[in-house]
């Protein structure tokens, strides 16, 4: 069994020395050297020595702002940071890498890909798709282990369907884990890059929360259950229904193209639409760095945003005593600005 705690000590922004050290220690002994894009790929054949039809993915970079080693602590089977000078725990996607290493060790058939550069635009996966390796022609599902929480089988990423509801239900059945259910609120990870060539592309909850922040945690109890179910799963139960040549959008989502494409109306984008608010909040939680850069390009500074938020919330002093503004308040600010 690989040590997740030891793996979480590595702060690995894309292109860093610490990332290379991590890969040399934990990935290369199992996968060998990476491909020309930095992706680590290994195939575990089926018992009859035929090509597997499932691809399992994660990524070896993290969203840390600096590289090096960090301290982590475990309390009540929850892992968190033990220092203030690190920007996040990095369970996104260290936990996914750990899961895949243990599945390989258990000889679960599949093509295993640990991608490079997910946190900087899915560079490794997008480049791999352009190469179109032969195994893609035999692949029915790409399953990423890169989702927060403990109940998601993602069916939509960035508002577009990437996996069928039937597949999500069959995945839950295969693991005999009913708390995992179809989730149309996915943001974006490497599996989305495969959605144009593979039928079912999903992202599975692995038990972390507060990703991309100093408050990030990893639930070890849920992870232990998930790991056991993945090893014991009856993968023959999976159902593949989605046609990857058909494009389907979830209209409860705010369009990333400004809201006027794909049938959106102004009312659907308004601050009173609960689905719109819900998905804006998820985007904020998933992409705090990217959203900060976007707001900066729009000309907003921190003081102006805080002033806007607390003018309406009337709780500036409670902010001074807290660790920051929660995503609900930032969501309201973005809604009022019509962004």
Secondary structure blueprint with pairings:
Blueprint: H1 4-7, E1 10-11, H2 17-31, E2 40-44, E3 54-59, E4 68-69, E5 72-75, E6 78-81, H3 91-105, E7 110-115, H4 123-131, E8 141-147, E9 152-154, E10 156-157, E11 160-161, H5 165-175, E12 181-183, E13 200-205, E14 208-209, E15 217-219, H6 220-232, H7 266-269, H8 274-286, H9 288-297, H10 302-313, H11 316-320, H12 327-336
Helix pairs in contact: 8-12, 10-12
Description:
With 339 residues, the protein is of the alpha/beta class. It folds into two domains: 4-237, Aminopeptidase, CATH 3.40.630.10; 266-336, no CATH class. It is 36% helix and 17% strand. It contains twelve helices and 15 strands. It has helices spanning 4-7, 17-31, 91-105, 123-131, 165-175, 220-232, 266-269, 274-286, 288-297, 302-313, 316-320, 327-336; strands at residues 10-11, 40-44, 54-59, 68-69, 72-75, 78-81, 110-115, 141-147, 152-154, 156-157, 160-161, 181-183, 200-205, 208-209, 217-219. The strands form five sheets. Strands 2-7-3-8-13 form a five-stranded mixed beta sheet, with helices on both faces. A four-stranded antiparallel beta sheet has the order 5-6-15-14. Strand 10 and strand 11 (160-161) form a beta hairpin. Helix 8 packs across helix 12 and helix 10 (302-313) packs across helix 12. The chain starts with a helix and ends with a helix. Mean pLDDT is 85; it is low at 254-272 and 312-325.
């Amino acid at each position: 069994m690989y040590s997740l705690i030891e793996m979480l000590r590595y702060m690995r922004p894309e292109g860093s020395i610490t990332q290379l050290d991590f890969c040399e220690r934990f990935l290369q002994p199992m996968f060998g050297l990476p491909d020309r894009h930095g992706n680590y790929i290994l195939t575990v054949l089926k018992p009859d020595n035929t090509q597997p039809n499932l691809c399992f993915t994660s990524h070896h970079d993290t969203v840390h702002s600096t590289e090096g080693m960090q301290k982590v602590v475990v309390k009540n089977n929850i892992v968190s940071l033990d220092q203030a000078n690190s920007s996040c725990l990095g369970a996104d996607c260290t936990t996914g890498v750990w899961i895949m290493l243990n599945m390989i060790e258990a000889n679960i058939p599949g093509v295993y890909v640990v991608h490079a550069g997910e946190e900087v635009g899915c560079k490794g996966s997008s480049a791999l798709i352009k190469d179109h390796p032969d195994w893609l022609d035999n692949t029915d599902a790409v399953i990423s282990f890169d989702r927060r929480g403990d109940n998601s089988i993602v069916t939509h990423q960035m508002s577009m369907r990437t996996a069928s509801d039937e597949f999500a239900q069959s995945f839950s059945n295969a693991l005999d884990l009913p708390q995992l259910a179809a989730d149309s609120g996915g943001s974006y990870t490497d599996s989305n890059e495969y959605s144009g060539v593979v039928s079912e592309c999903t992202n599975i909850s692995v038990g972390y929360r507060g990703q991309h922040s100093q408050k990030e945690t990893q639930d070890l109890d849920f992870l232990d259950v998930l790991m056991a179910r993945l090893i014991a799963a009856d993968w023959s139960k999976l159902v593949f229904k989605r046609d990857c040549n058909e494009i389907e959008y979830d209209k409860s989502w705010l369009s990333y193209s400004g809201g006027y494409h794909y049938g959106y109306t102004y009312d659907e984008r308004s601050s009173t639409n609960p689905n719109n608010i819900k998905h804006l909040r998820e985007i904020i939680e998933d992409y705090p760095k990217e959203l900060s850069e976007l707001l900066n390009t729009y000309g907003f500074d921190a003081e102006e945003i805080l002033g806007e938020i607390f003018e309406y919330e009337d709780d500036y002093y409670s902010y001074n005593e807290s660790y920051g503004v929660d995503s609900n308040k930032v969501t309201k600010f973005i809604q009022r600005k019509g962004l």
